């Protein structure tokens, strides 16, 4: 239903803009480009229990049992790097694959850096960057992960990993800070965080003697964070108490009217009609923020979307596969003089959604997954050659 709603809105708005252009040549017309399933400028991939495999279509992926999203294989977080080297030469990008490892994209190539010890029994998410080095968090869910009850896990301080860095040159993940570096409360996990580029605001959860306790800490490193390890972290970070209101405020939905102007300009034409929640992140940046486009007197469900803002381009992907893009991709000229282009990715089967994306060079990588409430089954990603899809068509 949500896919049909957004498609109808998009087609209606495209037609309205076309009519408006006839009446007023100053009104911008948003062209629509369709990536068909029958074309050769894209490729489907899916996750197995041990890696990545190509597939003709998502519906042909072998069935997998639904599991809570914290416990199943899926792309949980993704973003592009931002340094001049990455942007101009390769456009390197990364995606955290829960229960598998780090997926690394470089133009039309990619590899999966697996780490069984770190990923196989933990939830991995919350990708951010420090000086273009990917950082992410891992934890064990007390609701769905039975291994958290293992006495060996509870008694081994080094098992309580929290913040991890990924070394793309060595293709290895290294722990930086553990939950035991932040608190001496027993059996505690850092279950979520926000990072503003300087301070790390953490939500911690402890289970002790059958009691569940949430508490909140703010901390920042006193030395470059990439030089820290769990063995020396306590000597090199400053910790202060926080509270639930502060943490909730860092995660709160912001009114869409306060979203970055580049994004609002790109979505002009239908943002006044479609309710949605949009997660916006900057390439190579800190934690993302979420914006809500609330529509009064509507019965429609809110769509979910992800947005990335880079220096030379920005893009938004909705869960039904509608993608907006503007600007110039690495090594390419500005598309349509900076005007917006709408792309419709191949339609997914029922109960499948596009969940996140990155752009590396001129290749789009869009994550997809099969969903049911809080559970996920099959998952993977789609690669699209934007040079062939956009630049060759619009010359």
SSE blueprint:
Elements: H1 2-23, E1 32-34, E2 42-47, E3 52-55, E4 67-68, E5 74-80, H2 84-90, E6 93-98, E7 101-106, E8 109-114, H3 116-119, E9 123-130, E10 133-139, H4 151-155, E11 161-167, E12 172-178, H5 179-182, E13 188-195, E14 200-208, E15 211-221, H6 233-236, E16 237-241, H7 244-251, E17 254-255, H8 261-266, E18 276-282, E19 289-293, E20 303-309, E21 313-318, E22 322-327, E23 341-344, E24 352-360, E25 363-372, E26 375-385, H9 386-391
Parallel strand pairs: 1-23, 17-19, 18-20
Antiparallel strand pairs: 2-3, 2-26, 4-26, 5-6, 6-7, 7-8, 9-10, 10-11, 11-12, 13-14, 14-15, 15-16, 18-19, 20-21, 21-22, 22-23, 24-25, 25-26
Provide a brief overview of the structure:
This protein is an alpha+beta fold and 395 residues long.
Question: Rough shape?
Answer: globular
> How many strands in all?
26
Q: So what's the oligomer here?
A: single chain
What share of residues is helical?
10-25%
Low-pLDDT parts are: 1-28
The Cα radius of gyration reads 21 Å
Average predicted confidence as pLDDT: 87
Kindly report how far apart the N and C termini lie: 35 Å
* Total count of helical runs of at least 4 residues: 9
Please identify the structural class as seen in this structure: alpha+beta
Biggest sheet, in brief?
A: 8 strands, mixed
Arrangement of strands in the largest sheet:
1-23-22-21-20-18-19-17
Strand content: 35-45%
